Amino acid sequence: MVQQVTSGIKISVETNYEGSFYKNYKIQYAFAYTVTIENQSKDSVQLNARHWEILDALNNVEVVSGEGVIGKKPVLNPGESHTYTSGCLLTSPFGAMQGHYNMVNFTTTKNFEVIIPTFKLSAKFAIN
Length: 128
Description:
It comes from Thalassobellus suaedae. This is Co2+/Mg2+ efflux protein ApaG. The protein is an all-beta fold. The chain contains no helices and nine strands.
């Protein structure tokens, strides 16, 4: 598990290799990741958007940006957390993800970025 705190918002990420399959004659490696967003600040906040950079061992980079996470824009009061699970496909058994969430602080009405720490994606069968 990797963790990081930015502006009182703690991000924790756990990953899991889900398996491989062929799609359009190319092998794809499926990974799941579970993110917990914990509000350790004294203010209520809302997650409005996400930005991901997904890298594989073949130097392919996929950028994914959009509103919310899995169709939600969670509001977190002090001490509350939100957990969700999502996934990605890589063309190699190794990779990494990093990014940030765009959030708003309801007390100050200011937007701010919360860093999602870089986390590794690896299929156990490919590790020596």
